[in-house]
Amino acid sequence: MELFNSCVVLLTFLVNVNCIMWNLEPNTQKCLKEELQQNVPVIGEFEVSQAPGQTIDYVVTDSKGHILAKRQDISKGKFSFNTESYDTYEICFISHVPPNHRGITQEVSLVTKHGVETKNYDAYGEAAQLKPIEKELKRLEDLSYAIVQDFAIMRKREEEMRDTNESTNTRVLYFSIFSMCCLLGLATWQVLYLRRYFKAKKLIE
């Protein structure tokens, strides 16, 4: 039982949950970026403090500018989307203040979850008639699988970076050899040219 509790605590620290709160100045925007893998479900919950005459919009886009979620004049709510490919995804909150209106700072809070944490294990446990311990074990199984997948992705990235470094080192070596050959050739040509020049001027024999 102690081992089970230790696993629960360990995997809890590895959960993909982000919570952030900030002050959004009038007529400005705040964007948050994160790299995500392909086919990853993402859900977010936001809340904005009210300010008379002011509105805040949010928009979720990828690096290509495709809009995945968007809503205007928000106060409190949720959004969700699935990633289509490995990419950098951006969530922007934009403040709008009418002309000739003195704006005030608004407080924005955002909680995002992706991957395993987007699953509702309570509903799943009720549908499958699982006991609490079975439901928790299913959750830990999914978390363990997600962690293994993350390590596999990191290993793949490390291999790609190593291959890139080795390729770059090889190209730098060849370029250095080529540069040395060019310098030696140029130095030889200068010596021969100066020798012919001095002989033509009869400065040397």
Task: Describe the overall structure.
It is found in: Membrane. One of its GO terms (cellular component) is membrane. Residues 29-139 form the GOLD domain. The chain crosses the membrane at residues 172-194. This protein has three helices and eight strands; from the N terminus they run αββββββββαα. With 205 residues, the protein is of the alpha+beta class. It has a domain at 16-118: Jelly Rolls (Sandwich), CATH 2.60.120. The strands form two sheets. A four-stranded antiparallel beta sheet has the order 1-8-3-6, with no helix packed on it. A four-stranded antiparallel beta sheet has the order 2-7-4-5, with no helix packed on it. Strand 4 and strand 5 form a beta hairpin. The longest helix is centred in the C-terminal third of the chain and has 69 residues, at 132-200. The termini are far apart.
